[in-house]
Amino acid sequence: MKSSRRSFIKKTAVAGTGVIAAPTIVSANVFGANDRINAAVLGVNGRGKSHIQGFMAQDNVRVTTLCDPDMNVLKERQAEFKEKYDQKVSLEQDLRNVFDDKDIDVVSIATPNHWHALSVIWACQAGKDVYVEKPGSHNIWEGRKMVEAANKYDRIVQHGVQLRSSPAINEAIQLMRDGYIGRVYMSRGLVFRWRPDIGDKGQSSVPQGLDYDLWTGPAQKVPFTENLVHYNWHWHWDYGNGDVGNQGIHETDLCMWGLDVGLPSKITAMGGKFLWDDSKETPEVLTSVYHYPEENKIIQFEVRPWCTNTEDGATVGNIFYGDKGILVVDGYDKYKTYLGKDRTPGKSGSDGGDSGTGMDRGAGGTDGHFANFIEAVRKHDKSILNGPVETAHLSSGLAHLGNIAYRTGRVLDFDPKTERFINDPEADKYLTRDYRQGFEVPENV
């Protein structure tokens, strides 16, 4: 399946060309099988817990440092680490100190979205290889800067879309490449998740142990509120990207991979808040459409909360439409097909081993994606990455474009080559942000 991945990257990596510097090697170690790789996990309140497990499941890889601006969370993870692995682990609140630590070889980033790109860039500049959680970026401009940094400093950067390491999903992609469901012209991404009322907790004092200045990082600082820390920042524009840019990145990535396309030329979106009078800023319901006139292809994307139907059994997944049938991806590691107007069941596949969460099943789960990352680190070979940095930029970029169309309230024309909107300075403002002093994503990485 490497040929499909490489085709996807080749078709989409040309955007913004002329600014990517020739690779320069900084501390480009090639590790032998017997060389221990020391890892640090940045952000350990949520997804970072799976990152710890992903690293510790690999041969001769050890998590030596946990980093989070909340010391209370750090101490909890440290105690859990000691109990589970019977090993000590260092704690650090400031990620800059992690990048300065010469004994750390790789880092994983599971911070809030607004920290992802700057963390990747700083890590690359420090000579670290990086596993970054989805979405790779908080906006389109900084996604391109991530690609530039990974290339300039010759670093291995893996994007946390673990379905790219699933044998079943790779099999599904190959079926489409082989014409099993005919000419594939449309993909549909589904994010139907239970997202309840989060209320509005108002302002309060900063909890003891939390470095709120570090938590805020590149965003503009506002008075502390529990509406943001620790999880519900997802639903506020300065920190998150709504569910299309949260859960949805797995699906935007697969939509683009399956159709073998990059960023679109025309985007529209509509949605809003229909259920809860709470502090969320991002829409609860969002329908976005991405059109590729030159390829004669289209992507539809649906975000829905609360009670809803399934679509061919899927609530989180993808549906691909061909002129001979459809292919349905349910979650991260299984697919089924239906052929002809009678919907005759066709080929299907699954990695198996359902853990109950849907996140770590089979070879395509988090552990498998980390295994692919570590293999690439040991060989210092980015060509074998299943989710290279370009996918972080592009799959995140698709979500960002949908959000921009929603926020501007109109159909947008976009130039994938320049990664700017066509004669639309209002929409262009959403391509980047005002960075707080000391936490700027640099123009020249």
From TrEMBL:
UniProt keyword annotations, A-Z: Signal
GO molecular-function term, one example from the UniProt record: nucleotide binding
PROSITE patterns named in the record: TAT
Statement: the UniProt record of this protein carries the keyword Signal: yes
Domain named Gfo/Idh/MocA-like oxidoreductase N-terminal: residues: 37-160
PANTHER family named in the record: BCDNA.GH03377, OXIDOREDUCTASE FAMILY PROTEIN
UniProt name for this protein: Gfo/Idh/MocA family oxidoreductase
Source organism of this protein record: Euzebyella marina
Lineage: Bacteria, Pseudomonadati, Bacteroidota, Flavobacteriia, Flavobacteriales
